[in-house]
């Protein structure tokens, strides 16, 4: 059930986990950001509902850093299960940092009672529908990143950066359920 008691800004509104780079924080591997412009995000920011996380930085990786991909055939779930790894373009195994960042993202979400996340597409951490195929050749395959997989496993609904309206609807539906339950 949505925990409205943890909602922020004194408005009684639930919070949403958002990739830090979508909020304009310069945390991407290349030192840049991917600031998103959408009315839903603007509203969440104005109402104090957006909670930023960069799992890779949280996991201990520097910025800038070499780009990383999940090894071929793998996905976030298989990394978490120990059946795939995350390697950077320099050949380093960064699996532990990605797994640590995912756990910290989940802890942050749970601390705020978060049930909905909007994360950056295609990232080996934040991707929610497609990720790169492990060859550093720009090819994408169906699958999610390590953080998205862990959040989903915990029951958090993860959306991509082009699904702001769907995320807002999901949040509204969860709020309605929570309100209805509170009236029983
Ligand atoms: S890990 Fe997620 S939040 Fe951090 S830069 Fe990559 S896509 Fe953005």
From TrEMBL:
<protein>
    <submittedName>
        <fullName>Uncharacterized protein YbbK (DUF523 family)</fullName>
    </submittedName>
</protein>
<dbReference type="Pfam" id="PF04463">
    <property type="entry name" value="2-thiour_desulf"/>
</dbReference>
<dbReference type="InterPro" id="IPR007553">
    <property type="entry name" value="2-thiour_desulf"/>
</dbReference>
């Amino acid at each position: 059930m949505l925990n409205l008691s943890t909602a922020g800004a004194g408005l009684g509104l639930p919070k949403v986990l958002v990739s830090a780079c979508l909020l304009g924080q310069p945390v991407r591997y290349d030192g840049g950001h991917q600031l998103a412009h959408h009315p839903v995000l603007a509203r969440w920011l104005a109402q104090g509902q957006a909670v930023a996380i960069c799992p890779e930085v949280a996991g201990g990786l520097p910025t800038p850093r070499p780009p990383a991909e999940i090894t071929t055939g793998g996905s976030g779930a298989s990394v978490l299960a120990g059946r795939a790894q995350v390697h950077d373009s320099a050949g380093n195994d960064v699996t532990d940092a990605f797994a640590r960042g995912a756990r910290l993202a989940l802890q942050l979400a749970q601390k705020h009672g978060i049930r909905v996340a909007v994360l950056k597409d295609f990232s080996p951490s934040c991707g929610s529908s497609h990720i790169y195929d492990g060859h550093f050749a720009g090819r994408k395959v169906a699958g999610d990143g390590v953080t998205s997989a862990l959040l989903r496993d915990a029951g958090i609904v993860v959306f991509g950066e082009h699904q702001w309206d769907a995320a807002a609807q999901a949040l509204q539906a969860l709020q309605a359920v929570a309100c209805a339950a509170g009236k029983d």
